[in-house]
Design brief:
- The structure is a homodimer.
- Chain A is α/β, with parallel strands linked by helices.
- Chain A is about 40% helix and about 15% strand.
- Chain A has helices spanning about 20-25, 40-55, 65-70, 80-100, 115-120, 135-145, 150-155, 185-195, and strands at about 30-35, 60-65, 105, 130-135, 175-180.
- In chain A, α4 runs parallel beside α5.
- Chain A starts with 17 loop residues before the first helix and ends in an 8-residue tail after the last helix.
- The interface between A and B is large, with 45 and 49 residues.
């Protein structure tokens, strides 16, 4: 083709590397893996964090029940095998987003240590940032925004985490936020400070 | 070079919307769905396109066999049901990337029209850009970089697309590139021109 605008395109050999993405985006990528009891505040913190990151020009994205359970994982139920597969896929998708240069934030109960550790294991060092969204069971149950605890106590929901199914808190998470003790903005600030301190994002101007 | 960072954006209250992401990133998001015979050049075009987009500061990402078949879809084989589920999941992940504001490029044979149409159906209008990577079977077979055609002809690979399994070309793809007639750079330019013309990305400065 005679009028190819090829003079404007520099064809470097090779693919776009992770370092290339970070250099262009101005931030590093990672998976911020939120874990905690139902109604502990994972999604609330995740969405507020996503907003705070975009406010700084950081490409962020929340993976949660709304966009995963009704799409990618809509074929999965709540049997032990399906819960396991649910978290496995979320870990793999989170890895793809990290590879793509996005700070992705997962907001799932993910009650089992082994499931979370498996997600950590498929990523490179520093790419998996576990955030324990700590909140007492009493407080989660008092909030109960969807009425799930009430139904679980009434026996209408089986194997409900915190009531009739176990929650295994992280042993050594990168970050702990106490949503029963600190306001949302402070919890978000804790995560941002971690990301700044560890060099994932630039300190606020 | 354009930068994904952009300051002084006026925020709406609430969550980060698709429009917010587009305003900050300076480009729209979509799934560029490459389809074509084995060895037609899908991955080559996809990787070069990804690079050309990043060169303009556009956040792009390739989903292909390397990062999907060995991760998210490693539990799937090549039975009809598994192939079907393979493409279903890829469509859902592509949708997530589009929602996240990334121009994502999928590079899979995806031989069945119904599978591709299903992926299109879960996205909003304009979010699914089908690219038919057209190349004659003779030329694909001549290239045969992995020796798969040879093995398929020898009966060592069953149900190989183009040889012993069907390939259904798109009826009305948004873009057709002829990798047996035009050099790689020209095929990439065709896609870029489409994205510019339709307003996904800004014209080259």
């Amino acid at each position: 083709m005679a009028n190819l605008k090829s003079k404007h395109v520099v064809w470097h050999p090779g693919v776009v590397t992770k370092a290339d993405r970070e250099a262009i985006s101005g931030h590093k990528a990672c998976t911020i893996w939120m874990t905690g009891l139902p109604a502990s505040g994972k999604s609330t913190i995740a969405v507020a964090l996503e907003k705070a990151l975009w406010d700084r020009g950081v490409h962020a994205f929340v993976l949660d029940g709304d966009n995963v359970r009704h799409g990618l994982n809509k074929d999965l139920g709540f049997s032990p095998e399906d819960r396991n597969e649910n978290i496995r896929r979320i870990g793999e998708v989170a890895k793809l987003f990290t590879t793509a240069g996005v700070i992705n934030i997962t907001a799932f109960i993910s009650p089992y240590r082994s499931d979370r550790d498996r997600a950590r294991a498929i990523m490179a060092d520093g790419e998996f940032v576990e955030v324990f969204v700590d909140c007492t069971l009493d407080e989660c149950e008092r909030r109960d925004p969807k009425g799930h605890y009430k139904k679980a106590r009434a026996g209408e929901i089986a194997e409900f985490t915190g009531v009739s199914a176990p929650y295994e808190p992280p042993v050594k998470p990168e970050i702990v936020v106490h949503t029963d003790q600190a306001p949302e903005a402070e919890c978000v600030r804790s995560v941002l400070t971690y990301l700044e301190t560890k060099g994932y994002i630039a300190p606020e101007a």
